[in-house]
Amino acid sequence: xxxxxxxxxxxxxxxxxxxxxxxxxxxxxxxxxxxxxxxxxxxxxxxxxxxxxxxxxxxxxxxxxxxxxxxxxxxxxxxxxxxxxxxxxxxxxxxxxxxxxxxxxxxxxxxxxxxxxxxxxxxxxxxxxxxxxxxxxxxxxxxxxxxxxxxxxxxxxxxxxxxxxxxxxxxxxxxxxxxxxxxxxxxxxxxxxxxxxxxxxxxxxxxx
Length: 208
What we know:
The protein is 54% helix and 20% strand.
């Protein structure tokens, strides 16, 4: 078969030799198939991959929510316990009216322990979420056992009192009394949040 003798006019394709016709049809079919894959099937495959990824994400979300729903009673019990503990803490916070008497209680605890106060300086309240911290800088002199008795006495007060930044140093070689100097930051707390949280706190304390 001499290819130069073939009339390659597409309008004369019916006169082409059978092998040429078969090859041409195969090429056209391949081109049509390739175009169909490129313009249609690839897009569908991409959408399928996205759907599979979305399905996996939804399954994971469902598993997480299912675990949460199974553990819901435990979460509710924990929440109840936290609320109870919070109520107990709020009850131990002094009201604005009780702060002054609490400051006296703190100083009286130190004097009853045998300490000598060099500094007792209440600072400005530090507002938190639903309460305020009331810092008090103190400096006292006393023997080690008296200092320990003082700290223990603070922990026994009916209101919440915490001790921070404790620093204990000897009085000096010249002092033969065995007394030591302790500086510390004593904190107590009261219902010093915004009006909404203060109202909730009062409600929990049984006040109106």
